[in-house]
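Researcher: Here's the sequence for the chain we discussed earlier.
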Amino acid sequence: MKDQKLPILRPGVRLRSQTCTTEVIIVRPGHGTVQLTCGGEPMIDLASQAAGSHDAAAGLDTGSALAKRYTSVSDGTFEVLVTKAGAGTLADRVTPLIFKEAKPLPSSD
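Model: Thanks. This is the structure I predict for it:
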């Protein structure tokens, strides 16, 4: 991973995991402080070839759910959407991302 350049997190950028099948799309990049990882390894551009497959780190192997949005605990303006589920945990470095709750729709009564 030392010779691979990490992708810039911009809206619409698609990334994939080096540890599993997880793929995401950046919805909101936040304030630029999040270092997005999956299974303990940095996520790479969808078109990039991994330097080699890595095993997910212990504790970062709980998986990601398809079509769910995740946000960072430290930067609530950061948001990703899972486009392909996998076994690795999405995280900001080693702090797992959390589900972003859907806003309830207003009543139509």
